[in-house]
Design goal:
Bound molecules: zinc ion
Low-confidence stretches: 7-22
Order of helices and strands: HHEEEEHH
Mean pLDDT: 87
Strand content: 5-15%
Structural class: alpha+beta
Strand order of the largest sheet: 1-2
Oligomer: single chain
Number of domains: 1
């Protein structure tokens, strides 16, 4: 995939099997998702960033997961509006392990299960600082 600058950027869609372009998630939406999730995976609560070391930069192990994917992806729904795929309401923040798990087991982790998981997690985070 080529960025508008002509620079080659990683194709995250290939890695996750999604057909929609995850690069289309806006900065605003990403801030909302990471902020409301408290830098924690919504499933296992793992902290999603690893501090830098003397030799290396910090590592980010969190991924913005689509609840309903684009055409052909996990939990795809032909009736879901294409222009809402990358909206905050359709994303859940997960660690890499749980992102793969929920995508591999899309019948167990259907859209309703993920929405409930996200909602419960974000309410938990909001309660952490009264
Ligand atoms: Zn996790």
């Amino acid at each position: 995939m080529l960025h508008s600058s002509g620079r080659r950027v990683p194709d995250e869609t290939r890695e996750t099997g999604h057909t929609n372009n995850t690069m289309a998630i806006s900065d605003r939406t990403r801030k909302l998702l990471w902020g409301k999730s408290g830098n924690r995976c919504a499933r296992c609560f793992r902290i999603l960033s690893v501090d830098e070391t003397e030799l290396d930069d910090p590592s980010i192990v969190g991924e913005e997961c689509h609840i309903v994917s684009g055409r052909g992806g996990p939990r795809a729904d032909a009736d879901f509006p294409a222009d809402e795929i990358d909206d905050y309401a359709n994303l859940i923040l997960l660690c890499r392990i749980d992102h793969k798990t929920v995508d591999d087991q899309e019948h167990t982790f259907d859209a309703a299960v993920l929405r409930t998981m996200k909602d419960a997690h974000e309410r938990k985070v909001a309660r952490a600082f009264p």
